[in-house]
Design brief:
single chain, about 350 residues, alpha/beta, 6-stranded mixed β-sheet, 10 strands, binds ligand AN7
């Protein structure tokens, strides 16, 4: 019988604050693959590692899970327009879901600091895009202020409906494995995602599906690491533009996630991020945007330092697709651009270049 995944609201209807009279705006998000990564397990010297590949969502990032819930609630409340501040992925997602829901979208992005893949999505989905002279934190302050005083509905993760949708990733991991991992790592930016996983695993615990919460690890870019510094960072800098955030909105929720799960925050340099970005593509077959390699990079750093706790199973969320920000894949470790060789269309000469010997 034909079956198609119906998106996270319908798949987890009984665990989300929705009723039959609510509008459901969906693009079929969720149901993303949980991919075993033995090469990473070997690198970390643990029993198993699975990658939750959130780049497989309809707009190419984990944001779609929370966007279906936030935009559905906006639609149900009669909103005509939604607004979001974004380092790129939220704007792509908000723009697409607004179109699906028949609404206008307004997105505020830091000028010159979002990848062109993400910008192209917001343009394609006819968002009203404004490049703000400032960073993400300025964009979010503006978006909040506008939504408080004008008829635009805020769909950033400070909107609790976002976390409701995003928590479904934790449910999916339990449903796929039949258990919760011992440790779960992810990149940490505005802190919506780690807060949502905490919510999801907590509900699994309270429902008796799992007996222990996975240790939640949130990893930041070293130049943009307020959770390591212990206070907001005024001028965040990193090549991982998705997580170039100095003043995370879900500060308290992230602290609670760490405390409640015996978790940890960490930071890795841009070089460490790019190293893991390459490792995931070359050894695991999973192409992610650089920011998305941050969680795995933090684990590898801990393993090298001997601070990775003795655990058997690990899940790493890789949050966005490699095609979002593909320039980094076209550079080698020294930063030189990689240009595939041009050849004449002659088999023998191509074989010679490839170093192949003719079959006997
Ligand atoms: C690929 O799009 O904040 O800690 O405005 O795009 O929940 O913020 C994106 C964040 C990780 C961090 N990985 O997650 C935005 C935005 C990717 C991201 C994060 C983001 P949070």
């Amino acid at each position: 019988m034909a079956h198609q995944w119906r998106g996270v609201i319908r798949e987890y209807f009984d665990r989300l604050p929705f009723s039959e009279s609510d509008a459901i705006v969906t693009l079929g998000e969720g149901g993303t693959p949980l991919i075993e990564a033995p090469a990473l397990a070997k690198l970390l010297d643990v029993g198993s590692v699975h990658l939750k590949f959130e780049g497989m969502n309809p707009t190419g990032s984990f944001k779609d899970r929370g966007m279906t819930t936030a935009v559905s609630k906006a639609k149900s409340s009669g909103a005509k327009a939604v607004i979001a501040a974004s380092t790129g992925n939220t704007s792509a997602s908000a723009a697409a879901y607004a179109v699906k829901g028949g609404m206008q979208s307004v997105v505020l992005v830091p000028a010159g600091k979002i990848s062109w893949g993400k910008l192209s999505q917001a343009v394609a989905h006819k968002a009203q895009i404004l490049q703000v002279k400032g960073n993400f934190d300025d964009c979010l302050r503006l978006a909040r202020e506008l939504s408080e005083n004008y008829p635009v509905f805020l769909v950033n993760s400070v909107n609790p409906d976002r976390l409701q949708g995003q928590k479904t990733a934790a449910f999916e991991i339990f449903d796929a494995l039949g258990y919760a991992p011992d440790l779960h790592a992810m990149p940490l930016g505005n802190a919506g995602n780690i807060s949502a996983y905490h919510l999801g695993y907590r509900e699994d615990l309270d429902a008796g599906r799992i007996s222990v919460l996975p240790k939640l690890w949130g990893i930041q870019a070293a130049g943009s690491a307020p959770f390591i510094q212990g206070s907001p960072v005024k001028k965040p800098e990193t090549i991982a533009t998705a997580i170039r955030i100095g003043n995370p909105a879900s500060w308290d929720l992230a602290q609670a996630a760490k405390a409640d799960t015996d978790g940890s925050f960490g930071a890795v340099t841009d070089k460490e991020i790019l190293w893991m970005h390459r490792f995931l593509s070359q050894e695991c077959g999973v192409f992610v945007e650089p920011s998305s390699a941050t969680g795995a990079a933090g684990l590898y750093k801990a393993a090298k330092l001997g601070t990775l706790p003795k655990v058997n199973s690990i899940v790493v969320t890789v949050t966005g697709h490699g095609l979002k920000d593909p320039d980094w894949a076209l550079k080698d470790e020294a930063g030189r651009s990689i240009k595939p060789k041009k050849v004449a269309a002659v088999a023998d000469s191509v074989a010679g270049i490839l170093g192949l010997e003719r079959n006997k």
